[in-house]
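Bench notes, afternoon.
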Amino acid sequence: MAAAAAAAAVGGPQPPQPELPAPGLSLDKAATAAHLKAALSRPDNRAGAEELQALLERVLSAERPLTAAADGEEAAAAGGGGGPGAAEEEALEWCKCLLAGGGGYDEFCAAVRAYDPAALCGLVWTANFVAYRCRTCGISPCMSLCAECFHQGDHTGHDFNMFRSQAGGACDCGDSNVMRESGFCKRHQIKSSSNIPCVPKDLLMMSEFVLPRFIFCLIQYLREGYNEPAADVPSEKDLNKVLQLLEPQISFLEDLTKMGGAMRSVLTQVLTNQQNYKDLTSGLGENACAKKSHEKYLIALKSSGLTYPEDKLVYGVQEPSAGTSTLAVQGFAGAAGTFGQLDSSDEEDQDGSQGLGKRKRVKLSGSTKDQSIMDVLKHKSFLEELLFWTIKYEFPQKMVTFLLNMLPDQEYKVAFTKTFVQHYAFIMKTLKKSHESDTMSNRIVHISVQLFSNEELARQVTEECQLLDIMVTVLLYMMESCLIKSELQDEENSLHVVVNCGEALLKNNTYWPLVSDFINILSHQSVAKRFLEDHGLLVTWMNFVSFFQGMNLNKRELNEHVEFESQTYYAAFAAELEACAQPMWGLLSHCKVRETQEYTRNVVRYCLEALQDWFDAINFVDEPAPNQVTFHLPLHRYYAMFLSKAVKCQELDLDSVLPDQEMLMKLMIHPLQIQASLAEIHSNMWVRNGLQIKGQAMTYVQSHFCNSMIDPDIYLLQVCASRLDPDYFISSVFERFKVVDLLTMASQHQNTVLDAEHERSMLEGALTFLVILLSLRLHLGMSDDEILRAEMVAQLCMNDRTHSSLLDLIPENPNPKSGIIPGSYSFESVLSAVADFKAPVFEPGGSMQQGMYTPKAEVWDQEFDPVMVILRTVYRRDVQSAMDRYTAFLKQSGKFPGNPWPPYKKRTPLHPSYKGLMRLLHCKTLHIVLFTLLYKILMDHQNLSEHVLCMVLYLIELGLENSAEEESDEEASVCGPERCHDSWFPGSNLVSNMRHFINYVRVRVPETAPEVKRDSLASTSSDSLSSLQSSRRPKVLQRENSGTAQVFSLVAERRKKFQEIINRSSSEANQVVRPKTSSKWSAPGSAPQLTTAILEIKESILSLLIKLHHKLSGKQNSYYPPWLDDIEILIQPEIPKYNHGDGITAVERILLKAALQSRMNKRIIEEICRKVTPPVPPKKITAAEKKTLDKEERRQKARERQQKLLAEFASRQKSFMETAMDVDSPENDIPMEITTAEPQVSEAVYDCVICGQSGPSSEDRPTGLVVLLQASSVLGQCRDNIEPKKLPITEEEQIYPWDTCAAVHDVRLSLLQRYFKDSSCLLAVSIGWEGGVYVQTCGHTLHIDCHKSYMESLRNDQVLQGFSVDKGEFTCPLCRQFANSVLPCYPGSNVESNLWQRPSNKSIQDLIKEVEELQGRPGAFPVSISSETNLSKEMESVMKDIKNTTQKKYRDYSKTPGSPDNDFLFMYSVARTNLELELIHRGGNLCSGGASTAGKRSCLNQLFHVLALHMRLYSIDSEYNPWRKLTQLVEEVNSQQGNEEQQPEVPILYHDVTSLLLIQILMMPQPLRKDHFTCIVKVLFTLLYTQALVALSVKCNEEDRSAWKHTGALKKNTCDAEKSYEVLLSFVISELSKGKLYHEEGTQECAMVSPIAWSPESMEKYLQDFCLPFLRITSLLQHHLFGEDLPSCQEEEEFSVLSSCLGLLPTFYQTEHPFISASCLDWPVPAFDIISQWCFEINSFTERHAEQGKALLIQESRWKLPHLLQLPENYNTIFQYYHRKTCSVCTKVPKDPAVCLVCGTFVCLKGLCCKQQSYCECVLHSQNCGAGTGIFLLINASVIIIIRGHRFCLWGSVYLDAHGEEDRDLRRGKPLYICKERYKVLEQQWISHTFDHINKRWGPHYNGL
């Protein structure tokens, strides 16, 4: 009805109705909408419909906006200034109002949603979205779930992974076609359709009227906006412009789809209704705009090479009539004429255009049908035209999302799939032309995977729309555009065409969307069956595959190196795998049972036909063309794989599907050519073709390709070998490998086709190939599990493997797309059966291991299979690696001590169909070869190796294992004299041939050979050498009739056989005369003449073996038959002792097997052993061999030299290390007696690691320590609570930094600066908690001038490593540790410590005076600053370095910038930072004594000299010197009070005692005397103790205070009152009570009062804990300055031990009664006086600021060690929270989010959004949080990145999967769990500042992280 109304509306010319003036309209949209809705609800709604149509006509008129798109200015004028945007917004507003029918749009949306019956999720996502795939729940391999559905479903224990979507996708939750219902999430489990009420009619009534017009309007926009590109350059800009304009409209449609099922079904009706479409778009009305739009549409169709069949009556979907197709073809030709230049796909009819001359256009089945597939499009609904424009505009993302969002509607899904198929050819054409083919490919697959993964749907479309025909035809057409003539075999006359791998189509994988769709639909059984039944399709498909047969041909370069290495081989391998192999595996997966035999017969039949055509097309007779190889034979491989399947699964008789002998001979040639070429490539014969040929050889066997390439090839060769004549096959192999000429008994020969240097490796190649061919059972009877096990063992034997690399290396049955390893359950069980898991460990160097699997012992013992390893190695070194590991295992388990040979492994039994393969082992040709090679090896001919012998023995053993039948008895095997008359051996059974003696052999040798020189018959076997002759020349064929000598020519034999077969099979006689050998093969004329010689041999294979045993063991008569001693051996022959061993063992094993097989052999072996063997001929050394021997010797000598050098170097290095250590601990060298004797002053001696000289450091030529200066905020991260902070993983959790050490110290300093004089504040605290400078050294020293020249040389070095020389960075020349400065060593004696350490008996008062005087003496230094020496210059420069190490904000704390007090503060704080950090490295206390490594390489001594030198430049005004306040009573107390304006100085009790210590010590002239040091410490301890008492008094409550005040006062007059804490405490309390300090105890203060009742013990503990940090730092300082050892102790006695070590405890102090801290006090002036003076300062301050006064007194002295944030167990919790989290700076979700592991800040890595002054956010944060060191966890990659200054490195991951592996970039997406050990290591490196040393791969980040 709506349709009728619409027709009426469009049909007549409807002038816009004047009744509704536009302005009024816009004012009251809601009222109009309500009025119209009411009108339409009436039974007779015709008037309402017309009114609505008129309104829509005007609102949605396509004219206004689009002219705007074309030319903006005019449109703006015309549209009344609003511009296009305004008009469109207006239109959208109207639509929303109308849909809602007068109500609010949002309420309308909610109302519609209530009727959503959909039980599917259907959420559509675009690229880079994080989704999940569960293989346990998936039916289709492409199944995917959105994160929400995944987490709401139950997938525990399932095989799932998280992945980042490549092309986009949609959630399948709720769709039982794609996944099992058990996996649905909670929301989609309910089949909700039943309980959803029916949709009220009037709710969506307006939508039914409005939407058709809206969609038509959209289509008109698209028509208008599309302009055919005029030139070759597509106007992508214009297209994007149009799309941007349409963004709001498409988004509006997309929002409609999200309203749920009810709205979707309305949209489906609108989109698929043909009547609506016809009425609106036909362009038949008089509406000019519609007409114009229709014309544009027709032009677009035409330009796409498509026709619009006018003849509507005749045109049917299935089969167009003749008339139409001619029309179509004409249209096509016309289009090609007009747009021929634009579009290569239209040139296909013009044969000449490709420059191919006679290119054979492949005839497609039923040309009219295909023509219509390719060129006819007829649109009958909005949906179809929308898709057409979507394709035309190259799949804009918004449109794609809209079309996919509709898919949950079943009716739509079917309609859309059909439409998609209808446009398939057009999609291909657009894709080929597109410049953005990558993006477009992804979008196409995004759509198609949703449609074709559903089997039911795929089947329906296949039946109704000929999906398979369309796909195959489209693929064929696509490839036809890039065919070239094949140059394989017969270049001139070849008719074969192949794809050109250099074309963009293949190079850029443009074909993959189409191929992947094809693979996808073939995975459905019903579709695949249709394909396999349709003969026409199979023929077309084989045609398609033959395009790839022989592509990317390689021709061997013989003269110079190829100029340009083409990389086309990537494209070729990818194309064969994706376009040929994967569809093949798809088809094979449906041929598993007996009932499917017919399918296999079909494929095999058409495959053979295609192969026959191919042989004809390339003009192939019997010899492959020399020096060329192609690795691509997909037809051979299809044939092979279907054969294998037929025998293995379908019980087909193999012979019924095999062709005749001639065809088999042809079939084997090319695969064999590849095997020979592999050997050639490994022998470096193709080296002039560049690296890419090696790349091809490696890719051919690589794990992703091997089972589609080398495995089928070998299998096909096995099939051919089992059916062809064995002699023919063997001789073909040796001829292909070009080693026929080598197989001669003569000591010299000439090879016409191979250089001597390649002979040995080619011979090894040929024998290895035969061994593989005969031992491999992959397709010959192994079950899937056995195959899996063999593959796994081979990989594990090469190297230990991680779980993921094993998964990757084991060739899966690439059933396309499956991502499912066949039987992944069996994967795990096989893995646990063959391998042990090695948990991830650390190596001391800090390099991190992954969890690895390593083979179990019994696997090495019984299952190690060298043949499988050789087959599967990509790099030859892996074979060696496997053998080395095998050797190690045998040594370790004590099974074999020497160098073992590869073990012989028993094979699984052959499938009966392939029994013929074993005839190869029992053919004379092979026996002759084996005999000859054994003889040559025994005679030491050149070019033979142990490997050759190994393979020869392996083949003999294989023959013995597989001997056909037990011999009936000895003599029966000789079949009559005439047989043995003309051949070497009597029969073909190896067992009997082994004992056959060969007496004489006639050979043809060059005249220069030694054999010719003597009388040939007299020659004896002792020194004459011998040979089997096999020259290619036919004249050797004349056979002598004498029985003495035998000649055999492999090649001639082979030719004869081939000729026979050809004669038999060909009727024309003239075929016989075909010339077989081309001129290329004849020997060069320059070769020496050949002559005949007869050699006496008199050996059999058995006798050769026994002699070989003697030769290998180096003893005469070494072989003794074991059964003579132990007859048992013959009864149970499986003896473990023969399993592993070298050549000797192998020979013994073979002889034992030979004896077992026949009594005759046993007897002959015994006989041979009885004869005393003649001595082995002395070895003649030829010149060539001499050369190699010399080479070996030279190498050996070089090796020894190197070892010597290394040893020398190591010892030097050791001595460097030792001297470096001595610098730090001088007392080790000096025997103790020196103190009593006359002191001998010896200077400290340093080694320079650059020039190697030793000597003292002097003023003119100072020596320095190699140091690394770095700013550090580790100290600032200490917190005062034990509970470590966790990384926030919810919005509620936050980390606040105000409880960190840095924050607390900051607050304290700013508080002091508020109330006290600035210069005094800067002496009262230390800075450097954040951004302090830490100095560390590797302990090596160098002359400073040497260092400068070293830096110069680094600067000129072009190859710069990961550091920046301009910033002064370098690596230590000796140990390569990273460094950036040199710290000068102060010239001085080594003995200084002892000189100054003698105890003086001066009283403390005298010492205090001395200290004061020394401090007052400015610059009292041995080195006067005024005279600029080298040393002082260096000291200044290093000071500059130290300052520049940290940022300005971490140095300047003074209110007056640049004040000297600031530098003063900075310098003593550097000392403080280094001492505090060392304390942290020792675990926060000194209980472990001197045993810590931190002290080993400390440079604090040198650092102190540098700092002291600079501190002395600033003499403190003696009035302000805190020393006076500490040691003297000041009389004039009131003078300060008078001056009110000036801020007071900081009261001494607010000073930080450790800072005071450093100031005092650094102000003293160096070197410092021990007694002065002790004096300073004693004085400071009194202050510290008083501070502790004050803090204690503030902490406790009023009653406690008065009680203590009382008890203390009683004892005040006792003798040691000054050393009693009770007395002192009571005095402090009474002094402070005079001020207001205690008065302020309001309610809020009660919180601070600790509820503990103070006992004497707890008070003592509090006082000790308060003083301990100071004692620790002081002890460390004493350790470094005076080299005194640190005592180790228990934690509880740390205080007493340290205080006695520092000399605070009087020596006569008794330790019996409990230790009291107060006993350490030694007051320089009467205690009570000085305390009251100190307290007075506090009182005068608290008069005004009691709060602050109190806060400053309570210092937190107990900081816990710094830690990184604690991470959750499971990585997913971090990932789910952070990967969608918005950045607080730019409020966007970052592309690369990261989180700081020190403070938990969330940052954008590399985000330009958060850049500030060219610094990206991570770099900025690393400066603010860690003073240049940042540790970030990259959320999307699970790895940790370290930023250190201007460099960064990837540290690795602390999250590992269940198999102990990292998952960088979350590629595998398996669940990850925290590895606590790794995290500990990370934290350790952070705390110890060793990132620079341990991590090796650093690079500059240019502030871009």
